[in-house]
């Protein structure tokens, strides 16, 4: 998830309070996590992960039976490599429903499924090196933060003893009993210091505050509104359109994910395009930046 403000490592002690992820990205993370969880349950009781000794001895992948190390059985001449490529194409077709792509090891043309085939194990030396990189003796992992997270299903979960800077993109929803994507996370321990207990997660903005009256006074002369009566439903207030476009830009959501408080996303998109075409949008953003 991306923080509402960027925090370079070591350059600031400020911590994020609100993290927001576009709903489309949260749903994608959710679908991946659910597919992986389903595959784990399917494999329950099956030890598909090779020990390093078996991998180093040339044992094939326990999930698909295809080679991991050594010379391919079909040979390395031009005809053999062509047969391997054809076999890979058939393998990809058989695993098209997995929708996770394939991987292969260096110096080995045989492909494996990202979802079905476990990655080869690390050697003892690689494990030690990775452990030193991730957990150096001087590193203190801070797990002091408490977050309230809103999920794609609209349910809210509380995560205690978590990192103050990061929240995992998916969480097990206790009400749905399935893995869901996280669309918003609020640090309630930090909010409580300011007198907000964090129970009303909807009252917190997603990294964006609406234009103040003073800010609107700077730019309202730039936009032109139609005068006189018109047929059909009332026009959406131009200030709301500007707020919607700024919200969309600063939170990196799609127009379809625009909150209902801004009205119809189609109207906001159409009128924003009009502002862009007339160069008014450039003037608005330049004025606000100044």
TrEMBL record:
Residues 211-284 form the Insertion element IS402-like domain. It comes from the Bacteria. It comes from Kocuria salsicia. This is Transposase. Residues 1-21 are annotated as: Disordered. Pfam families: DUF4096. Residues 1-14 have a biased composition (Polar residues).
């Amino acid at each position: 998830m991306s923080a509402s403000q960027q925090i370079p490592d070591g350059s600031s002690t400020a911590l994020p309070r609100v993290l927001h992820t576009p709903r489309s990205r949260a749903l994608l993370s959710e679908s991946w996590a659910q597919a992986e969880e389903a595959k784990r349950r399917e494999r329950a009781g099956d030890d598909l992960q090779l020990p390093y000794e078996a991998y180093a001895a040339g044992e094939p992948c326990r999930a698909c039976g295809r080679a991991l190390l050594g010379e391919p059985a079909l040979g390395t001449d031009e005809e053999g490599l062509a047969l391997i490529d054809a076999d890979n194409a058939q393998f990809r077709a058989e695993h098209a429903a997995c929708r996770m792509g394939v991987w292969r090891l260096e110096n080995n043309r045989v492909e494996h499924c990202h979802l079905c085939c476990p990655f080869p194990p690390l050697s003892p030396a690689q494990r030690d090196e990775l452990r030193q990189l991730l957990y150096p003796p001087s590193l203190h992992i801070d797990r002091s933060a408490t977050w309230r997270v809103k999920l794609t299903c609209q349910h809210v979960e509380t995560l205690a003893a978590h990192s103050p800077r990061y929240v995992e993109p998916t969480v097990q929803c206790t009400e749905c009993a399935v893995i869901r994507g996280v669309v918003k996370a609020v640090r309630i321990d930090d909010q409580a210091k300011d007198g907000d207990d964090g129970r009303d997660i909807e009252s917190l903005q997603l990294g964006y505050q609406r234009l103040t009256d003073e800010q609107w006074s700077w730019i309202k002369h730039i936009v032109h509104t139609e005068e006189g009566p018109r047929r059909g439903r009332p026009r959406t207030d131009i200030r709301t359109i500007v707020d919607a476009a700024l919200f969309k830009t600063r939170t990196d959501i799609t127009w379809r994910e625009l909150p209902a408080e801004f009205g119809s996303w189609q109207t906001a998109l159409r009128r924003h395009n009009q502002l862009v075409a007339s160069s008014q949008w450039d003037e608005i953003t330049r004025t606000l930046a100044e």
